[in-house]
Amino acid sequence: MTIPRPLAAAPALPVTLAALGLGPAVAALMVNARRVEVLGWQAGTWAPGHGDPWSAARLWLLGGRALALGAAVTAGVAALTLARRRRSPGLALTTAALVSLALAIAVELIATWTWRGGAGPGAWHDRVVDACAWARAAAVPLATAGVCAAAWADRGVRVLTPATLGAALLAAPPPPLLEQAYGWAEHDAYRWSSEAGTYLLVPDARLWLVPGALAAAAAAWAVMAALVAARLPPLVAGSVAPRSPAPSLRRLAVALAVVAVVVIAAGLAVALAQGQPSARTHPLELVVPVAVAVAAALLAAALLELLRADLPPRASRALAVAAVLVVWIVAVVAAQTLWARRGAPRPGFTIFEDPWMPGLVGAAVAGAALLALAVGLDALARAGGRAPARGHAAIVALALVVGAATAPWVLGFGTRSQPLDGLRVATLGSAALVNLVAGLALARGAWRAAADADADAPTSAYSPAVVSELPR
Hints:
Number of helices: 14
Structural class: mainly alpha
Order of helices and strands: EEHHHHHHEEHEHHHHHHHE
Largest sheet: 2 strands, antiparallel
Radius of gyration: 24 Å
Strand content: under 5%
């Protein structure tokens, strides 16, 4: 006699929905903080030689949008996988809404980071951004309604549904309502300036009313949507055909090796080109970021495909986090490459550099992605009955941390003006070696996990075909 073991419906969905709300909420607060700081300066005190006062706000906006894009893509893949298994109309609606949200964010990023400015009100950029805002205002409530409908059998979900839908409507309001809210909250904050000869917006607490409400609503929606997704009815073992993760793990291993080689090659090209005439290094301005973005996109595709297989909950959550962060890297590198090619002054052919996303931010995100990958592969190995030694895990973790910390230097972050003396050559070589070892260690772990999955087939430890055998 066999009793089917209930399995988690979509372990990656709560994590990605939480990231979809929390990341943009923090970015919105930081953008408004920069706005308040800029408006607080007296008129005429900003000299053109001091740079762009809105550069930090643009970077926070880029980071939030890129995180939302990664979360929407990963959540859409998780929802699509579950919708195919369960044939649920609610999950189908959620999948369609998340895909639409991801497309809207991608179009907005392209429009924002290719816009040259100066076209005046009603320019194509404003129309595109406005259309994307309408798409977000429709996609977030629809995705929420689909998840709530799929989990409606749970009593707690029925209690949370009204508040979750209300938070979704407040977190992504339509553009006209948002403009009216800003006008109502900030109307009395305008003061007449005799020096400027016009009304100026004087910063005070009223400038935080609307952004604070939006951030609070987004954070509340993220928490409640994650709770609803976590209460989806579990799958019954044997109800669907098992999907082995072995092919996806092999593709992931190849993608990890490609990323390691591309990053090292790009870093060496940037380092060796220092001091060369700009006419000779001009092709690298496009080749280096495009190569890094393509390699990261291959890794993201491999991770998303792996999430469609039958994975343990811990591995699924960790790999979902890694996928979100890798998509973030792809979006940021692509956006900044578009910004550099649009004709604006650029500092060089490095990928993360002022006035672009700081290199330390890229290093932190890359390090978090690598550590999440290591945790996910470790969970796969343990589920397959192979627990790695603690010493080996500690060495791999140390290599990943050191590799992520030195990745900005390897990629040339802020090193264009540094001469290549003996010390810097040795540092570059050691950093490149550590990054290569870290990437290949992860690739080896993915390949071994694929071999374990093949050995356990057809009743894989990651498969819903696993059942509990009871004595007759």
